[in-house]
Write the structure tokens for this entry.
Amino acid sequence: GLISISGLIFGSTPMATGIFAGGLISISSFYWLNRSLKKLLGPGSVGSKFGMQLLSMLKIVIIALVLLLLIMNLSVDPIGLLIGLSIVVINVFVVVIKSLFTGDLS
């Protein structure tokens, strides 16, 4: 949200749209991975390694098609999209740095 608003203020509407769309894709992908790993590794797991590999490949294809659609048809800014796709990585980095200084892992 905050980075998207910054993109709108300092950039343009396509930049802000790209940041928002990239962030949404990135967070959705991270959530999907979390859910898949819980099914595979959780107590009473019902998933298989092959199934997870197949779903991961399907997820990559879906993400690639969504990115292609966004860039080709909705004219979002590719740089904004890249920034948005980096949201999860940025957040993980911030949490790790914070936990190193505070000792709090939550």
About this structure: Residues 13-41 form the longest helix (29 residues). Helices lie at 2-10, 13-41, 49-73, 78-85, 87-102.
